[in-house]
């Protein structure tokens, strides 16, 4: 991608937020990566110069880079001031938008980027926002030749690119995939910052808007190849992983389905059916999660319930979410594994009447999901935009990660930085 003589290749917007601090550190690491053979001018952006300065100082200490603060630009801008967002966008080739919940703060950044010819990457896990941005800005972004790529963090790069990886590794036609996410924690357990909790509360509280948006879109169904993928029960046992599982309620299914539609309609690729699950261990965890889920689904229906959920995240999530977020020790001891079970047909085998005759199992493994893996994924997505221009879609637009990056070296980049893709087994049935 041409850097168009702009002062900064990357600008981290919302750098002083909880996730933005991790993204800032990750860009600082990338800046001195041994593989880099060119200069990477970048900046942080937000409302408060003091806070941004503190984030850079903390990153400098953590990375042992005393001169970091003097190497990074600072841009002052505010989500409520469109002119300041325009000024930020004009100075960047790619903006990394870290300000959520995106349903409240995401669109002004997308609008400023599209209008000023700047590409934008976010780490949103909110299907309503992601799908709305496509309908509102895809054509304008295409006209401007810029790439607006949502859900480029843990939501939903491992799932979206994991399906592409599985498809590429199968010796035939992949027709259906189930993914199972397992989160591993250390002795101090798991914790997630309440920004993610807020996004979930508002998303589930406003599901009718997403339904309405999809009804208005009135898209033709993508054809089903091979037998229809059956949904599992709300609580099911996965024999292969020796664990109970529940449906994964993040953005992964929405994102993967949009990618498969894009690949089918634009590149004439055979679409893959997809379902996502979260492993929850033994029966005790199942009971605990059932209670938390019932509480959540009851309270999220009412305005006062949503206020209570947002005010007391720790209480209603049984300690999984807090306003402080995870400690460094919790982060260091945490990791994730996403296992994909795919089925399909070997070359020359008819997909219409016969049963699938190939099975494949692949895995994506990485460090702590919410902040470490998210930052790596986001920054490597940005580096791919900057460096793999000839392998991106020919014209700009609003894309899912795999729609934008399926032909690039992003999977290799992620693997080099600790988010590893591998084939576990593959066999003809």
UniProtKB/TrEMBL annotation:
Pfam families per the UniProt record, alphabetical: Sacchrp_dh_NADP
Domain annotation Saccharopine dehydrogenase NADP binding: ranges: 11-149
Membrane-spanning intervals of the chain: 274-300
Gene Ontology terms: cellular component: lipid droplet; mitochondrion; plasma membrane
Keyword line: Membrane, Transmembrane, Transmembrane helix
Top-level lineage group: Eukaryota
Annotated GO biological process: glycolipid biosynthetic process
Similarity comment text for this entry: Belongs to the saccharopine dehydrogenase family.
Protein name (Swiss-Prot/TrEMBL): Saccharopine dehydrogenase-like oxidoreductase
Naturally occurring in which organism (per UniProt): Camelus ferus
Lineage of source species: Eukaryota, Metazoa, Chordata, Craniata, Vertebrata
